[in-house]
């Protein structure tokens, strides 16, 4: 066998391996996640997880939410979210989120505080 032999497979381009798309949590996994956050996290953490599960918001979108983006009625509500490519979209809130004490109390502050974040950092102890 000669050492300077030509490799015929060298010209073959490899196909990139695609990552599988994110999967949806089943009901048991969702309940386990909420239970874990309820047991070990704060009320704020639980509200964030429930909001993300029920609306499909991205982490960055939740971090950027302000009180002025939340519109709550007696039985329904909406979120106006600035998403990817700076596009606004309106997301309906289900009854579970509308009844959520944390979301309700945070959204119903005075109009002077509308530009403040809906969920602040825990380390600052500011709400």
Helical region count?
5
CATH class of the domain at 26-113: Mainly Alpha
N-to-C CA distance? 74 Å
Q: Please count the beta strands (DSSP E, at least 2 residues each).
A: 3
> Any idea what the shape is?
elongated
**What gyration radius follows from the Cα positions, in whole Å?**
23 Å
Order of helices and strands: HHHEEEHH
Q: Which structural class do you get from the secondary structure elements? A: alpha+beta
User: Helical amount among residues, as a percent range?
Assistant: 25-40%
Q: Beta-strand level of the residues, as a percent range? A: 5-15%
- The CATH architecture of the domain at 26-113 is Orthogonal Bundle
Largest sheet data: 3 strands, antiparallel
CATH H-level superfamily title of the domain at 26-113: Intergrase catalytic core
- What CATH calls the topology of the domain at 26-113 is hpI Integrase, Chain A
Main sheet strand line-up: 1-2-3
Spans where pLDDT lies below 50 across 5 or more residues: none
């Amino acid at each position: 066998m000669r050492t300077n032999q030509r490799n015929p497979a060298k010209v073959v381009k490899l196909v990139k391996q695609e990552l599988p798309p994110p999967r949806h949590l089943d009901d048991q996994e969702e309940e386990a996640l909420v239970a874990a956050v309820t047991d070990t996290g704060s009320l704020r953490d639980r509200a964030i997880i429930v909001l993300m599960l029920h609306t499909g918001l991205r982490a960055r979108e939740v971090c950027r939410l302000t009180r002025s983006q939340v519109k709550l009625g007696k039985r329904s509500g909406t979120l106006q979210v600035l998403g990817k490519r700076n596009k606004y979209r309106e997301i309906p809130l289900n009854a579970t989120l509308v009844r959520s004490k944390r979301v309700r109390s945070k959204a119903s502050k005075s109009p002077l505080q509308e530009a403040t974040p809906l969920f602040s950092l825990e380390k600052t102890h500011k709400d």
